[in-house]
Automatic annotation (TrEMBL):
Keyword Transmembrane in annotation: no
Pfam families: TRM5-TYW2_MTfase (PF02475), TYW2_N_2 (PF25133)
Natural source organism: Ignisphaera aggregans
Entry annotated with the keyword Transferase: yes
Key words of the record: Cytoplasm, Methyltransferase, S-adenosyl-L-methionine, Transferase, tRNA processing
Protein name per UniProt: Class I SAM-dependent methyltransferase family protein
GO process annotations (BP): tRNA N1-guanine methylation
SUPFAM superfamilies from the UniProt entry: S-adenosyl-L-methionine-dependent methyltransferases
SAM-dependent methyltransferase TRM5/TYW2-type domain: residues covered: 27-284
Amino acid sequence: MSEEPLLRRIAEKVLGSDYAKLIWRRIEIVGDIAIIRKPFNLSEDIFKVIGEELLKSLSYVKSVWLAITPVYGIERTRSYVHLAGEKRSETVYKEHGCIFKLDVTKVYISPVLGYDHMRIAKQIRKSEKILNMFSGFGPYSIIASKYGKPSYVLSIDINEHAVKYARENAELNKVAFLNEIIHGDALLIVPSLQRKFDRILMPFPDLFEKAIEAAMMIVKEESIVHPHLFIEARNKREALIKSAETVKKFIEKYGASAEIIGGHVIRGVAPHKYHTTVDVVIKKIGK
């Protein structure tokens, strides 16, 4: 959930219009925790009073945190500063009828991915075997398990906190019997897997090329892969077209042919830069 106009309204109320004009980031609500992303040109201290006012404005928020860095590192986390309310970063987050326990300071969380979680789940055919190469605390895997009726889901993540929460969340949502969750580096683990998968999820755009390279070791004809990537484009339509062309060309480097059957623009990440995902059927694998 996001409250885009609210942050600027609060800033104008407590700091004045000059500061409010500089604050353009949205608020992200994760369970009962509010997260503000810090603009680079403002000090952390300014946000303390905003955090206190935010608690008064949103009664369901119990803790407010300031994200002071972008997502960084292989574990995909941010650095945070506590602003107001309970000094607690663990919460329970609800999405599509599923519940997820997580610590916002220890795992990657982006509520904007919620639409794509269900978009993928709706594509899954009964009894599919699914691999999620970068599973985090489990939203793609668990929502897929709940609504897609796969026979088996293998989830991998290098962040040990994410793996702990993914295992707990599989239990909370009563899908643990379908899920195997491994702590480790998917880029090393995947090429050594002995089974083939019907569908492979790759929700880590920074590792787009490496993820496909690893996945091509275990795909079969008619496998569906869902790579994520960053793409520069003038608009969303162009972003999807360029993403499809980029993915198709990269897969063909491995002697396979690919059919693009769908895709989605997750979000804009900078002017003329988008986070996208593409749905691809592997049609023919070179021998």
